[in-house]
Structure formats: structure tokens, C-alpha cells
Amino acid sequence: MEVITLGNETLRIKAAPVPEVTDEIRSLIREMFIVMEKADGVGLAAPQIGLSIRLFVLKADDGIERAFINPQIIQTSPETCSYEEGCLSVPKVWEKVIRPEKITVQALNERGRPFTLEADGLLARIIQHEYDHLDGILFIDRIDPAKKAKAEEKFLKKASKKDA
Ligand code: NI
């Protein structure tokens, strides 16, 4: 299992719902937590490992491992805040992104049971970032276009150096 990076088409596709929470999905979730920890990430969405399904995992500052299957953000606060984001699929780029401060999300957990979670702070931030991955959106899409172009250029330059 490897984290794919900017330029890979799977990152840009709207992911399909998970039809059923099976043992296979549960072991996938376990593996995703391992990959995330190894990469020093705080969140990982299935499209980032090349699987176009609506599932992500995260570990915010409360240290709790959470899995979200077929999530839906059902409410966002009018208050927004700015936070410097990075992404395992866009290595070495960090930019401030403005997002709603608080959100309410509904999803299935790894047992296939529905839950509703109200989140703020880092947790709300990670959920929104990972949720975007399921719709083919990257955090650089939410920054100033000139900064986005610069970030893409910086990344592609690095990628071509690696290929050389
Ligand atoms: Ni990301």
C-alpha cells in the first residue's frame, strides 16, 4: 500500500460509496492507519492509496483513531478559520486554508454502525480535508490560484528530478 501523489488521476475522481462494511474493509482500515502513522500523517483517505471509495481515517490531537465510511458533512458553521495544511499526496507543500470552524458529520464506523459527530478545532479541519479527497478535491484547490500554480510547479519540478 503506497500513498499516491499529485498527478495521479485517482486523486481527482469522485469516489464511490462503500457498498458494505465487510471484514475486507475493516482490514483495509487497519492498514490505512499503519500507512498514515508511518508517513507521519494525521489523516488518510482511500483515494490516496489508489482506491476510489468513500472512506477515510484520521487521528487528531485527542489521539483517538477514527474511521469514516460514506461520510456526509451535514452542517458547517458560518464562522471560518485559517490553518496551515499539508497533504501526504502533495508532499512538502504547506499553505493556509480557510474553512468552516465547526462541522457536523455523519458516517458509518468500522462496525458499519451510523454515528454523528460534531467537531471543531483540528478534528474539524482534518475531517474537511479528508472529505475533500473523496470528491477529488485537494487543499491546493482552496488556496489563492497563484499560490496553487506555484505549489504545483514546485511539486512537478521535484517529481521530474526524481524521474531523471
Ligand atoms: Ni490530504
Characterization of the model:
The radius of gyration is 15 Å and the shape is globular. The chain is about 30% helix and about 30% strand. The mean pLDDT is about 95. The longest helix has 19 residues, at about 145-164. The strands form 2 sheets. A 5-stranded antiparallel beta sheet has the order 1-2-3-6-7, with helices on both faces. Strands 4-5 form a two-stranded antiparallel ribbon. With about 160 residues, the chain is of the alpha+beta class. The chain is built from 3 helices and 7 strands, in the order H-E-E-E-E-E-E-E-H-H. The two termini are about 25 Å apart. Nickel (II) ion binds near residues 87, 88, 89, 129 and 133.
Gyration radius, rounded: 15 Å
Strand-and-helix sequence, N→C? HEEEEEEEHH
Name of the level-1 CATH class: Alpha Beta
First and last CA, distance: 24 Å
- State the secondary-structure class: alpha+beta
As for the CATH topology, it is Peptide Deformylase
The poorly predicted ranges are none
Task: Determine the CATH superfamily.
Answer: Peptide deformylase
Distinct ligand kinds? nickel (II) ion
State the shape. Answer: globular
Q: Major sheet, described briefly?
A: 5 strands, antiparallel
Oligomer kind = single chain
**How many β-strand stretches?**
7
- The total tally of domains equals 1
The strand line-up of the biggest sheet is: 1-2-3-6-7
In the CATH hierarchy, what is the architecture at level 2? Alpha-Beta Complex
- Report the total helices: 3
